[in-house]
Fold this sequence. Notes:
The complex is a heterodimer. By secondary structure, chain A is α+β, with helices and mostly antiparallel strands. Chain A has 12 helices and 11 strands.
Amino acid sequence: MNIIRKLLLYKHLSWTQLTGFFIAGLAGSGIVLFGVQAWADVHPFFSPDDGFIRKDYIVITKKITTIGLIDKQATLFSPNEQEQLRAQPFADRVGAFTASRFRVSAGIEAGGTGFATDMFFESVADEFVDVKSDRWTFSAGDDEIPIVIPRNYLNLYNFGFARSRDLPRISESVIEMLHLTVRVAGNGKNDTYKGKIIGFSNRLNTILVPETFMTWANNYYGNSAAGNPARLIVETRNPADKEIARYFQERGYEAENDKLNDGSVVWFLNLLTTFVVGIGLLICALALYLLTISIYLVIQKNSEKLMTLSLLGYRAREIAAPYQALVVIVNAVVAALALGGTLVARSFYIPFLTRIWPEFAPGNIFPALLCGISLFLLVCLLNIVAVRVRVRKINTRSF
Amino acid sequence: MQKITLQGVLPLVFQSAPPRDSGVWTRDISFARGQLYLVEAASGRGKTSLCSYLHGSRLDYSGRVLFDDEDAARLSPAAWGKIRRSSLGIIFQGLRLFPELTALENVRLKNRLTGFRDERWIRDAFERLGIADKLNAPVAKISFGQQQRVALARGLCQPLDFLLMDEPVSHLDEENSRRAGELILEEATRTGFAVIATSIGKHVELPYHQILHL
């Protein structure tokens, strides 16, 4: 056995205090790591965009009131209103939905029979469309119109209609194989196009066509002059911004989807995580304090020995080494157990969350790993410095 | 280190009434490597203080202590550590052994720092000092006389230019005191270090070159 270690540590070490630190440190680190890992796993689920810098899109309309029935302009966004919205700090970008000003019907024909229905198209600038595809283009003269429909529509059929009528469910790939016959009429013209559903949108609750098609077709088939948009899409980094809710409420705008709610969930999640991690860090700090005090106490009890070692010619770092090795070992065990505990807890909550939300996709364990290593290094560094300072103080007393 | 010089050194506690008849305090004297010195004094004259000043554990004096030409009071802790490992040894009056360690561990504790002696030398020294049977005995369990000999063995486990001994044989009988003196003289002659021993009357037998009265 190393004589120095035997001399300086084993004789005066309080195992009760060390156990106290161990338990407190484990609890603190465990809470921090679990909080961080759980946040990292769950947080992306509430973020509709996959990007690193999360952006939210809010589709807004005006409230339909009784007056709106008479004055159609009251439900539309004037250029002035659009400009004011664009000028708001929360609005990174604002896009307008363009409605078709011609008649559209679409149908499916098979073996000489089929059905068709009147419908409408809308378009919005491509940067707001959450379906990225090479086929999302249209040039005058093309006979095929790419279409994006809301994923809700398919879900409505599959989980509502098809289920109640015992009809087969249709997958997205089957829908994408369908050829629609789109008839467009207006301005004395009447043409037939092939309609192709190329994707499904989670963000836009409308039947979308490329803006290039809409501009051309409104011009070519349009029966009336271009009007103001009835719906706008706002890109924002923080849908939970209270200013947004206030601004919308003041002007009688309504958010079409529940992004504002989503934002509240994210906000609440962030708050909860901050709180939990904060408590964990506080416990960690107290544990660190406890360990430091314990080590100080041992050093104090051993001060006469430290002085003798110094008089024999031992260097401060040689005297401090056994204490520093002890804190590194104890902290390493605490960090490893906290990390292990977090992974075990994760193996329980991931299947649970996957059962509740089938589309839930957990992240990786790097957040906990990174946090664990950082916490370990930080605590070790603080302890090592504290021990060094203390030993030096006693060491210089012998001069 | 070749020389230790005292220039008008006086413990602060004696400032109000400096001893007039002292051969050390307030004088300019030098200790040279290779010489054997005995500092004799009655109790309370500052023998331990002198050792402490020379070993750097206390600085409560006026005047200057020079190691060759360097003022000892200005040395850094690191420099003191180096000197204590490689040049200046001490046998404390209070011994400063670790009671929870065995006699052998106490000696090894110093030797692992300097790597100066091999295990055979240590065991041989214990044999010559008459404490071979106490090698593995905890220091707390052996007599003060035996502890003095363990401290002596420890004090020799390093390269030396000067060995300070503060009443090193106060609790030894004549036979053991003679044995200790033989070992010290043998090592001093072989490597040329100086001995500065203090005594209250009973001293280790060495052919001293100079006897000073504190």
